[in-house]
Amino acid sequence: MNEKVSAPISFSQLASDTILNFIEMQGEAAAVRINVASASPLDPRYEVTLIDPEEKAAGDVIFHVEGFDVVVNSESLKVLDGTRIDWVETLTESGFKFENPNLAPIGSKPLEGDLAEKVQQVIDQYVTPGVAQHGGNVTLVEVRDEVVYVQMGGGCQGCGLASVTLNQGIEKILKEKIPEIKAIEDVTNHAAGSNPYTTGAK
Questions:
Q1: Are 106 and 188 in contact (CB under 8 A)?
Q2: How far is CA 199 from CA 121, 155, 194, 196, in A?
Q3: 184 with 190: CB under 8 angstroms?
Q4: What is the layout of strands, in order, in the sheet containing 3-4?
Q5: 187, 201, 93: which is closest to 138 by C-alpha?
Q6: How far apart are CA 164 and CA 154, in angstroms?
Q7: How far apart are CA 137 and CA 125, in angstroms?
Q8: In whole angstroms, how far apart are CA 28 and each of 49, 64, 121?
Q9: Who contacts 90 (Cβ-Cβ below 8 Å, separation ≥6)?
Q10: Which residues share a beta bridge with 62?
Q11: Domains plus CATH for the chain?
């Protein structure tokens, strides 16, 4: 049985008008399904599709907004609660923009808590001395849900061996010293690096 609730998601007027135009162009009754394709704060992705009424599945949460029904599965709803959706058009692309307070960008929160302190200590004592030999450095950006987000700089940024350094070096050390860590993610923009490991002076 579908559950119909008050709207946990809001739409800008432009987003609502755009959806109503899509529904009108389809020429038949339709609802809008919103799904969280990826809840990663590194790369959150959402899907907005028109569905026929019979496509509503048992367990879906349904609410009415601005002249149309919105259908969300229960797992996506946990991530979307409080989200505002807008429609954005630029010279190169157009689409829905999600302002989701539940997926704050990595690095937007201050480093705090016992786990973050332990990670920082391990980086200072065991990681930094190793990468410093190559002119590199590793900065702790955030610890969220037992996932550690780091940024590489200096000789590590843009290096062709950065993934090896992360997987076989940093990740191995951190997980060995702090078993409760689930994963380590690199948020470095390696495209901006100068690949110093492979272009060193001869």
A1: no
A2: 31, 11, 8, 5
A3: no
A4: 3-4, 61-65, 68-72, 31-38, 45-51
A5: 187
A6: 16
A7: 12
A8: 14, 17, 60
A9: none
A10: 4, 71
A11: 3-99 (2.60.300.12), 114-192 (3.30.300.130)
pTM (whole model) above 0.90: no
Residue type, 93: E
The token pair at 40 is 């990663």
Distance, C-alpha 161 to centroid of its chain: 25
DSSP 90: -
Closest CA to 127 of 117, 137, 118: 137
Q: State the pLDDT at residue 200.
A: 36
Which two three-digit tokens encode residue 131?
């990468």
Predicted confidence (pLDDT) per residue in 120-158, tens digit: 898 888 887 877 776 777 888 888 888 888 887 765 444
| 115 CA to centre of own chain | 21
Strands 68-72, 31-38: parallel, antiparallel or unpaired by DSSP?
Answer: parallel
Residue that has been written with the tokens 């429609």 in this structure? 87
Q: Which residue has the tokens 């990670």?
A: 119
pLDDT of residue 193: 46
pLDDT digits (tens, 9 = 90+) for 81-135: 999 999 998 888 789 999 998 887 766 666 667 888 888 898 888 887 877 776 7
